[in-house]
Amino acid sequence: MRNKKFVLTFLSLTILAFVLVMSGCSAKTLKNRNQRNNKDILSSQNKNQLQTALSDSEVIQKKQLDVYNPQKREYNFYFTYKIVHAWWDAVALGMEDAVRQYEEKGIRITFDYRAPEAMSANDQIKRIKKAAALNEYDVIGVDVADIDIVTPVINQIIAEGHKVMTFSSSDSGKENGCNRIAYVGNTHNYKDGQDLAETLCSYLKYNGQVAMLVGNEGAPCHEERASGAKTVFDKYEGINLIDVKYDEDSDVNAYNLTKEFLEKYPDLDGIICCNMSNPVGAGRAVEEAGKAGKVIIVGMDHDERAIKYLRDGVIYALAIQDCYSIGFDTITTAIKIADGLEPGSLYPEKTEETTTVFYQKDAAALLHSLYGVME
To answer: Do β-strands 164-168 and 139-142 pair in parallel, antiparallel, or remain unpaired?
Structure first.
């Protein structure tokens, strides 16, 4: 289990440069980095990455606080997300930068940032209820693990007087009967799935057999991307979606499932991957089978191993989300919610964070800007 309390007054300019390029440092590094003693104990490897990172990454641009003046001098937030994973570490970096900028204005922000080792909606509702029972948080933020299971609990603690927002990768909105105040995160997972599917179909000249790796069953972001992709596959007569598997957001599971795909479907032409882990596993399996460039892979996000597969031609395209902005905007929105402001002119009910599709030609720059890799 990952439990962290952030009291951030110490981020150096070097760390800021790293934040600006949304590097996915390890969960262990982040856990050790921001404890109550506020000591920077980054590993020497990560320090080297910080020193070589580019501040003009195409993936992310530096953000600054808006003109809103918080009404209090101290805030305490609780955020729970789906699973301990490098994707949420990158979100945390955006959070840290926002907290640092508020600290410079004399505003002290602490927050808990918690997740289980394996995704569980039941685990999440226990965390939410426990946070509410403590009655010490200005805002509770939830990255919804399962809409049907988690929404009633969100509504329950709101009815008890708690302020709740959703954030990160998955929302439960008004259309789901959820009374959460606002959502900060990807609002276009369905379209991201469509865009990846169109990319794959175009490469295949709209003819071929494809398989899909989804992620976690019931996870809104994974399911929405899968649904979006299926609508694209359905409209092309020459595209045949022959298998769909759930890998539980594990690159090891994705590797094994892809090996099964390759054995079961010798004429497989492509694989679409709907989360950050499965392109890594799929790429490894396809490379080992000697089918790089023959089985075309498209997938999500910025895992260093996936970007190396992109560079080497094992993966054809990666759609990368702006995790830094999601984290930064989560903190600024939580401040306004804590101050009693409703969505409107000062912040939207749903944000419009971006996703960009990158190709092999972009891989070297991505590795340099995100991980300091010089090759």
So the answer is: parallel
Q: Is 284 exposed, middle or buried (0-12, 13-18, 19+ CB in 10 A)?
A: buried
Are residues 212 and 132 both part of a single domain? Answer: no
218 shares a domain with 199: yes
Give the pLDDT confidence of 125-162 residue by residue, as tens digits. Answer: 999 999 999 999 999 999 999 999 999 999 999 999 99
Range 159-165, long-range pairs (CB < 8 A, 24+ positions): 160/132, 162/132, 162/137, 163/138, 163/139, 163/337, 163/338, 164/139, 164/140, 165/139, 165/140, 165/141, 165/330, 165/333, 165/334, 165/337
Question: Is residue 332 situated within a structural domain?
Answer: yes
Model pTM? 0.78
Verify that 217 and 108 share a domain, yes or no.
no
The string of pLDDT tens digits covering residues 103-125 is 999 999 999 999 999 889 999 99
Whether residues 24 and 160 fall in one domain? yes
Could you give the CA distance from residue 82 to residue 111 in angstroms, rounded to a whole number?
17
What is the rounded distance in angstroms from the CA atom of residue 310 to the CA atom of residue 315?
5
Residue 362 domain-assigned? Answer: no
What totals of helices (H) and strands (E) does the chain contain, helices first? Answer: 13, 12
Per the structure, how many domains does the chain have? Answer: 2
